[in-house]
Amino acid sequence: MRGARSAPDARPTSTCPTRRGHQKMATHARRGAPLAREQGALILALIAVATLAWSLAQRRMAGMDAGPGTDPGAFGFYISSWVLMMAAMMFPSIVPMVLVYRLAQRRRSELRPAASLGSTPLFVGGYLISWAAFGGLAYALFVGVRSASIGAFSWHRGGPYVAGAVLLAAALYQVTPAKDACLRRCRGPLQFITHAWRDGPMGALRMGVEHGAWCVGCCWALMAGLFALGVMSIGWMVLIAALIAAEKLLPWKGAANLAVAAIMAALAIAVALTPSSVPGLTIPASAAAERAMSTMRHSHMQMHARPGNATSPMSVGTQAKHGTHGMGPGGR
Fold first, then answer.
1. What per-residue confidence (pLDDT) applies to 247?
2. Which residue, 40, 56, 67, 79, has fewest beta-carbon neighbours within 10 Å?
């Protein structure tokens, strides 16, 4: 019929919504594959570094666990051991933060490629700087208390109660607003990245230092508990690292936090009242503690006997003054 319109062709064309959807999905999959590989490689790198740090720490501190109040030795030995410990204990817990940081940096580097060079290692390095600073302050405080030779802190007098009090303080800190504020920032990588972002290599370093500072605020009391249990003990390091990982990584923030508080409170009571019943706790002035102190002194003498190493006055003073009778919670 003249003037009649033909019916539209109902056959699917190459631009139908279904096919376009499949094409978009394929494109996203191709773009996402390199990102997934990069993120997987980053996770493996952090775990590998942590594993290596555990191995080196165990080799370096083998036989040096003298229990609560262990003499940390010369500052150079202590601070290098402390940084190793922090890499071993904390790197698994910061995996989500490093992944989110790298993802944000990757997106920005598409616009400014030069700005991302070395940024992720600098971010992690800044994180370790914060923990190294805390370790230095802890060393100064700990050695200062030991050098004061307060008889009431000796193990056979008030030492168990001092160690128990430190552990109890760590348990109580778990339920404070300050702990909650720091923990929320540690558990919220995207929030931190959004509010603290800085461009460039120095920006990455500053962000790492800032995140490390929040992490110190979150975990300082647990690290103080490590001093109370034996700072050279690999076993207690593993426990504290596991508690930190639980409160940062498990999806049940409140329950994990309370569980950590309960464990630290139980340890506080046991160390204060029945220290000999605590598994893995080296009792100061025991035969095991004496062997540990002998091992530490022997290691320090070997280190200082190497060519080019001058004997540290701090180390000599510590050995001459304390020997195996150091004051503080670990002394007699």
1. 94
2. 40
